């Protein structure tokens, strides 16, 4: 079993538009269905909460790792950390990477989440399954977002 998730989507939007949707914390929140408290800055945490109905209790808690303009953006987080009674802070987080590649018609966006081997065994399989599904949905969400909002 692989310990990473990788998904790609061909977006009909320029790299600059996709980059802004990924790295502006308000735009990220709009398509990711979360409300974040502060701009993204490498080495700093970003927090907020999910806005998906039924999941408003779920915290968004990540640490921005790298921002290489219009090519690479990454953060670490605790995958599928949805139980409000569990303290996930002792777990090793996974790494989420977004890679942008320009094409003739727009941008290929690749998302890779790795490090699931470090998630406690009792929740690893479910975290992978839920994030596998989640990233599929989120790529469709960013596609809709970049195609329907101001360039």
**Percent range for β-strand residues:** 25-35%
The helicity comes to 25-40%
Structural class: alpha+beta
Choose one word for the global shape: globular
| Number of helices, counting only DSSP H or I runs of 4 residues or more | 3
Average pLDDT rating: 95
CATH architecture title: 2-Layer Sandwich
What Rg, in angstroms, do the CA atoms define?
A: 15 Å
CATH class: Alpha Beta
Structure characterization notes:
This protein has 3 helices and 7 strands; from the N terminus they run E-H-H-E-E-E-E-E-E-H. By secondary structure, it is an alpha+beta fold. It has a single domain, classed as Alpha-D-Glucose-1,6-Bisphosphate, Chain A, domain 4 (2-Layer Sandwich), CATH 3.30.530.20. It has a 7-stranded antiparallel beta sheet with strand order 1-7-6-5-4-3-2, covered by helices on one side. Strand 3 and strand 4 form a beta hairpin. Helix 1 crosses helix 2. 22% of the residues are buried.
